[in-house]
Design a protein that fits this description.
heterotrimer; A alpha/beta (about 425); B mainly alpha (about 280); C mainly alpha (about 290); A: alpha/beta; D-Maltodextrin-Binding Protein, domain 2; four-stranded mixed sheet; C: mainly alpha; MetI-like fold
């Protein structure tokens, strides 16, 4: 009797185990499956619409786009499992450099859509490669801009002027403070926000290829970043008393509620800010870090680009998907939704909060983010957060150099081998 | 006389202290429930605002949270994984515990196997997680099935120790009697030994179920990014999507706590007994 | 007959042993092998010998994580054990509704530690400062989780909140093994209150004490879920537990090889601590 009961239990378990995988077998299709994993969760809704529209219009290809949180972690975990999506949507940063180096991306130089992309962004993509590699591996989709967001209504009310030099900026902060308003809000609990003002100032205070120069052994960060670090510290008193208690979301909410006049973060934050207060009038200006009005440049990089993975089985289908994504209407929809700057050539309507930076965009006066060259293991953002907490410039710069040497050992060796091979 | 009065007084003191201590447990849970029912507009930073009850007890937050976190799907995954793991653990670990327990006293081989497996208790998951991420993928097990297998292996050392320890109390005479009746070792085990071990089955079931249900790391390593989640994994994934909408977040937390709370209220005594037995052994 | 028995046992043992080896021993060995490479997790990699291990000892971040984790484990163990002992004595004494209290106090233990962490995250960030403001305690008016030197206390509180229950259960069982006549005999000799505890109760529950210590320290050394929920290792990397650092930098930080070395060292530490603790407590057990 007991044996029967046992057999029943075993049978039930067996049924459960076999039944479950069958559940997933409903979708047997002759369609080509293309999977995109892209890393901007704030654009999830946009991509859902695109996915639906594509699938409705295409019979032979079935597209899935997922926009998970912490997508880079998920992507890297999937790569460890050798489970590659067909297309990945990532930023033009160090991860892109790693992926190119690991040879897991496909060469897409034969993709025709590349010809419509602004050369400036293609150049940025090239310089991201650790050592110059033949071929193109990313289609730049949109760029962002990082300067200072400001509350237009507050500025108009108090008659504040947009600063064009560092001294004007500090003076403006004094003026704002004198009226009892907080000049800046910071969200330093999320360490990555520490990098926003850093990057925006670095483009004017340090050479664009600092990291590469250091790798070649031509300079050190202690030399190039000193002024940058000191000026960053000078901004802190103009922020909240405990900037480390607030994360990115908290800071966006505070700025949206008018608790500060300015917010030194990139254009990518506007959707979040507007979701809290849709009536807020935001504009932005380039962050002046030096006292040379003419030396200003806009901090801008590839915010989102698409790469086809080497494991993708059907490149043609992937190209068709890319064509759809890069259509004029879709790009316009994206930049309307996310206040981004398109990488494609053409007459696009930019969001009003980018007005203050239009001249720079139109002139192509842009410089990439320094942190796109920082290895992720180095946790430069955490280093920065520690620096802002302890306010010790020398210790920070020394740590930066030491950590750089340690984490980039293999890259430095690779770069120096390459340089030697050229000689 | 003096003895009982001091005992009576100290017991009343103990009672008071216990009730006060209870507030440290109740308060966070009270907050969770209250915040989950409130709307964002009711969230202020003043004390009265924090402690007050919500204006309406609407289930909107919960409905939204269920949608956002794909609650039912994750719940199903958690249930499937937990039930199958517990089932397999009881079957496999007790069997192995029997085989090892009966033989390790007089066989070097079995003693070695026993020590080998039990020493697995010292291996923290941290050192296994990265190679397992690769290995399960190579074997096509980067899914809920792989998670189940990993749990069965990971909890094997402890459960085998429990089962073989319990076996000491079961006299060999029972097995010999069954053999005299012509039963094979295999049948003897399932018909005689397995049923007798049911108190230990309960213990193992409880400990394993609790551990597996709440586990975050294993599904995180094996299943993250595959589109399938367990309940804790869903919490992790969707945490940043709540932004500053804490009400939605807390509704989601409460949802994920309810299954285990129900389980606990129903099976409280068994759980406490099981955990006690397991820990003491 | 005996051969049939032997054969059955072998047929049972070998497959299950193979399963164990496949999913426990082999990954362990592979982990050790990876620790000698600079593997990113994907792409190509090279053999680097002992470089990772040498780097481990000069890496401030790894050192900080060990210090934090050990500090957390030791302090939390002490706090938890003191609280559980007191609680156990309370729950073991003659009070009404004992079952209810035991059930209620065990509740935190069964809740998922991730969600508990999120709940306490909110509590520490918003509720506690508000309470402190109202009562005028200025040192608590900013969230302790944003303070690099105090954030660990927040983690400790959450760990303790959930762990007290388990230890209490063990202590209750321990207290119940002390027979009444011991107390009576002691009472005749004039032992009451604290003296009764120190000279009678405590020596007899030492076996349970040692179980609790081993379990506690080992569990807290492996803390992960609470870190994920409360601080994600911050602020300023002051609350990165060893497991968290291994996971974070190993899986998504591209330090697959390096963190494997870290994991090997961690493994050795766990083994050493467990063995040492068992030997130490074993010598102090007193037979009734």
């Amino acid at each position: 009797m007991k044996g029967n009961r046992l057999k029943c239990l075993g049978l039930a378990l067996g049924c459960m185990v076999t039944a479950l995988p069958l559940q997933g077998c409903g979708a047997s299709s002759d369609k080509i499956e293309i999977e995109i994993v892209q890393y901007k969760p704030e654009a999830a809704n946009y991509f859902k619409t695109v996915e639906d529209e594509f699938n409705a219009a295409h019979d032979t290809i079935h597209l899935t786009i997922s926009s998970p949180n912490d997508a880079m972690t998920i992507l890297k975990t999937r790569f460890i499992r050798e489970d590659y999506p067909d297309i990945i949507g990532i930023g033009g940063d160090i991860n892109y450099s790693y992926f190119v180096d690991a040879e897991i991306l496909a060469d897409i130089s034969d993709y025709e859509g590349l010809q419509d992309i602004n050369q400036g962004y293609l150049d940025i993509a090239e310089s991201l490669e650790l050592i110059p590699t033949d071929g193109t591996y990313i289609v730049p989709y949109v760029a962002n801009a990082a300067g200072i967001l400001y509350n237009k209504d507050l500025f108009a009310e108090h008659g504040w002027q947009i600063p064009e030099t560092w001294s004007e900026l500090t003076q403006l902060c004094e003026e704002i403070e004198a009226e009892g308003i907080l000049p800046f809000y910071f969200g330093f609990k999320d360490t990555w926000t520490c990098l926003a003002p850093w990057n925006a100032m670095a483009v004017e205070l340090s050479p664009a290829d600092t990291a590469k120069q250091v790798n070649r052994g031509q300079t050190t960060f202690t030399q190039e970043y000193r002024q940058l670090a000191e000026k960053y510290l000078a901004l802190l008193p103009y922020g909240p008393d405990d900037p480390f208690a607030y994360g990115y979301n908290d800071a966006c909410t505070a700025f949206a509620r008018g608790e500060s006049a300015m917010y030194p973060i990139g254009s990518y934050a506007t959707p979040q800010i507007l979701s809290v207060n849709p009536d807020l009038h935001i504009d932005s200006f380039v962050m002046p870090a030096s006292d040379e009005r003419e030396g200003r440049t806009l901090n801008s990089g590839i915010d989102l680009g698409f790469c086809v993975t080497a494991e993708c089985e059907n490149k043609e289908a992937a190209y068709e998907v890319l064509d759809f994504l890069l259509s004029y209407e879709n790009i316009q929809k994206y930049i309307d939704d996310q206040n981004a700057i398109p990488c494609k050539k053409g007459d696009f309507r930019l969001a009003s909060m980018l007005d203050g930076m239009l001249t720079f965009i139109e002139e192509g006066n842009m410089t990439d983010y320094q942190d796109h060259y920082y290895p992720s293991e180095m946790s430069a953002d955490a280093l920065l957060q520690t620096f802002l907490l302890e306010k010790d410039v020398d210790a920070f710069l020394a740590a930066f150099d030491a950590n750089w040497q340690r984490y980039n050992r293999d890259i430095i060796r690779m770069v120096q081998d390459y340089e030697q091979s050229l000689q | 006389m003096k003895h009982t009065s001091t005992v009576g007084k100290s017991n009343r003191v103990a009672l008071c202290l216990l009730i006060l201590g209870l507030s440290t447990i109740v308060f966070p849970l009270y907050m969770t429930v209250v915040i989950a029912f409130k709307q964002p507009s009711e969230m202020t930073t003043s004390i009265s605002g924090i402690l007050s009850l919500p204006k309406t007890w609407s289930l909107d937050n919960f409905r939204e949270a269920m949608e956002v976190t794909d609650f039912w799907h994750s719940l199903k995954n958690s249930l499937v994984i937990s039930v199958i793991t517990v089932g397999l653990s009881i079957l496999i670990h007790s069997l192995m515990g029997y085989a090892l327990g009966r033989n390790k006293a007089h066989s070097k081989f079995y003693n070695f196997v026993y020590l080998f497996i039990v020493s697995g208790m010292f291996v923290p998951f941290a050192i296994l997680m990265m190679p397992l991420a690769k290995q399960t993928a190579e074997l096509g097990l980067a899914n809920w099935a792989g998670v189940i297998i990993l749990y069965v292996v990971f909890y094997m050392p402890m459960n085998i120790m429990l089962y073989s320890g319990y076996l000491v109390n079961i006299p060999m005479a029972l097995e010999e009697a069954a053999k005299v009746d012509g039963a094979s070792t295999w049948t003897t085990y399932w018909k005689v030994i397995f049923p007798i071990m049911s108190p230990m089955h309960a213990t193992v079931a409880v400990i394993t179920a609790l551990a597996v249900w709440n586990d975050v790391m294993t599904p995180l390593i094996i299943m993250a990014g595959s589109g399938e989640n367990t309940l804790p994994l869903a919490q992790l994934n969707f945490q940043s999507q709540f932004g500053t909408n804490y009400n939605l977040a807390f509704a989601s937390y409460l949802l994920s706590l309810i299954p285990i709370l129900i389980f606990y209220i129903i099976c409280q005594r068994q759980i406490l007994n099981g955990v006690t037995n397991g820990a003491v052994k | 007959m005996k051969n049939e028995r032997k054969r059955t046992f072998l047929l049972i043992t070998i497959p299950i042993l193979a399963l164990f080896v496949c999913f426990n021993t082999i990954p362990l060995i592979r982990g050790v092998i990876y620790s000698f490479t600079n593997f990113k997790g994907f792409g190509k990699y090279d053999w680097v010998g002992l470089r990772n291990y040498i780097d481990l000892f000069s890496d401030a971040r790894v050192g900080k994580s060990y210090l934090f984790t050990i500090k957390l484990a030791v302090v939390t163990t002490i706090v938890v054990n003191v609280l559980s002992l007191i609680l156990a004595i309370g729950l073991n004494s003659k009070i009404r509704a004992k079952g209810f209290f035991r059930g209620a106090y065990f509740l935190p233990n069964i809740l998922g530690s991730l969600v508990v962490g999120y709940i306490f995250n909110y509590f520490f960030t918003y509720i506690l400062p508000a309470l402190a403001d109202m009562m005028g305690i200025s040192s608590l008016s900013t969230s302790i989780l944003s303070n690099p030197s105090k954030a660990w206390i927040g983690v400790m509180i959450v760990c303790a909140w959930q762990a007290v229950a388990m230890n209490t259960i063990i202590y209750i069982s321990g207290l119940q093994t002390v027979p009444e006549d011991v107390y009576e005999a002691g009472g005749l000799d004039g032992a009451t209150g604290w003296k009764r505890f120190r000279y009678l109760t405590f020596p007899l529950i030492i076996p349970f004490f040692s179980i609790n210590m081993v379990l506690c320290v080992k569990n807290f050394l492996m803390v992960f879920d609470q870190i994920m929920a409360l601080t994600k290792g911050g602020p300023a990397q002051s609350t990165e537990s060893i497991s968290y650092l291994i996971y974070n930098n190993g899986m998504s930080g591209g330090q697959f090889g390096f963190q494997s070395a870290n994991a090997v060292v961690f493994f050795i530490v766990i083994v050493v601590i467990s063995v040492a603790q068992m030997k130490f407590s074993g010598s102090k057990e007193e037979q009734l």
